[in-house]
Write a structure and sequence with these properties.
By secondary structure, the protein is mostly beta strands. It has five helices and 24 strands. It has one domain: Neuraminidase, CATH 2.120.10. It holds the Pfam family Phytase-like.
């Protein structure tokens, strides 16, 4: 009897999506990206009619991606960010970021982009744990985020390690709620709310924090345990979507708590023989979700995949059966 009760408890404590293999997303199209000379595509957003991208190696440009003859041609939009605000990150993390910036030749390390319905763009700087707004009218400006945001995140075990800091940003259409993702060791989610010209935490800043490791999907052929991660965020139809690079999946989560509701895998498509990069982790870094499907961008770091392609890649997946709100 006791064994039966334990079995029932385990069954009902496991999300339904985890009880069986996650539904596989299907690839509708694949586009190499031309015109990003430094590569390292790190964020995607659909703003109005434009598909936009950022690179973590370029501090003063974002890119409009135009489909031309089977590729996406990147057209640069230049902007000039003011000096970032003082960072709340510890000295050791900031020092390592400074050293890397000297080697790379850029300082801000933009890892994600989002936009609201008005067309304002939001870029998250990993190196500074800050968010730059590119407004429709006016000059770029750094958001006045709460002073205790980074402190609460670090108290929850996040943002402790160099190069494992803020990796994703998502904003709601009204531009009143903004979510941030901590990448790994621990991964997590934070939310702030706009109040007039400043942003505040309503309750706590941190809504989700998770440690743990897992192996990559079986087709990679490695049993090495690696930290669970978030590599980008998207907000669609009052749900938060996380791009999970190691697991090769997109998950729908509650925006108030980060609780996972359902996940969809793209491992079958990403790990097809011709598309593999020969690394024990994923390279999916950028996410945008809409009614018809998802845009996923790859930061291959200049590495060639099995078919020899070295350019950044953008995948277009069709929406799952029943749409993104399916149970």
């Amino acid at each position: 009897m006791r064994g039966a009760l334990i079995l029932l408890a385990l069954l009902f404590s496991t999300p339904l999506w985890a009880a069986a293999d996650a539904e596989q997303l299907r690839l509708a199209s694949e586009y190499p990206v031309d015109g990003m000379p430094h590569g390292n595509l790190s964020g995607l957003a659909r703003c109005g009619g434009d598909l936009l991208a950022v690179s973590d190696r370029v501090d003063n440009q974002l890119y409009r991606l135009k489909p031309i003859g089977g590729v996406l041609q990147a057209e640069a939009e230049v902007f000039h960010a003011p000096p970032p605000p003082p960072s709340s990150l510890p000295w050791g993390v900031r020092a390592r970021s400074w050293v890397i910036s000297m080697l790379r030749g850029n300082e801000l390390d933009f890892e994600s982009i989002s936009c609201d319905a008005a067309g304002n763009r939001y870029l998250v700087s990993e190196a500074n744990a800050a968010v730059l707004q590119l407004p429709v009218a006016g000059d770029p400006n750094w958001l006045l985020l709460p002073d205790n945001l980074i402190r609460q995140a670090r108290a929850s075990g996040m943002l402790l390690h160099f190069n494992a800091l803020l990796e994703g940003v998502a904003v709601d259409p009204k531009g009143e709620r903004l979510w941030l993702a901590a990448e790994r060791e621990r991964r997590g989610l934070m939310v702030v709310h706009k109040q007039q010209a400043t942003w505040r935490c309503t309750g706590g800043c941190v809504i989700f924090s998770e440690a743990g490791t897992e192996p990559p999907p079986a087709p990679i052929g490695s049993e090495q345990q690696m930290p669970r991660d978030f590599s980008d965020l998207a907000f669609f139809e009052e749900k938060l979507f996380t791009l999970e690079r190691l697991a090769h999946q997109i998950c729908r989560r509650k925006p108030s708590s980060g609780e996972v509701e359902r996940c969809w895998s793209f491992a079958e498509e990403a790990l097809a023989d011709t598309r593999r990069y020969g690394v024990p982790f994923g390279v999916a870094e950028a996410l945008w979700v809409d009614a018809e499907g998802a845009w996923v961008g790859l930061d291959n770091g200049g590495k060639a995949r099995a078919d020899g392609e070295r350019r950044p890649i953008v995948w277009r997946f069709t929406a799952p059966k029943g749409g993104w709100s399916a149970k």
